[in-house]
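Sequence and structure are no longer studied apart. To make this concrete, we show below a single chain and its fold as tokens.
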Amino acid sequence: VQLQASGGGLVQPGGSLRLSCVASGSIFKLAGMAWYRQAPGKQRELVASITSGGLTNYVDSVKGRFTVSRDNAKKALYLQMNSLKPGDTAVYYCTHTTVNGNTWGQGTLVTVSS
């Protein structure tokens, strides 16, 4: 399984970004998918997850602002991020989990700054 994340960039506070993660070599529809992030000097944290059945979960700090979704036909995972704050600045990683193991993408940098 390989994961290719994209969509990061520089955005002003209050702005929006949409991250994408495309999987290859995967029976994607069976995988649990998630977005993690790691800010400078901080531990990596789970931001949002979505099960193979479409159930979602979010860390409290992004609830109401971020939306995780998936398109099984495109083998793609998305993270719509609205009302971005400087505290959201981090490298964002997508992950793919099945009974065969866990795979991480390469990360995409999101910088929220004026």
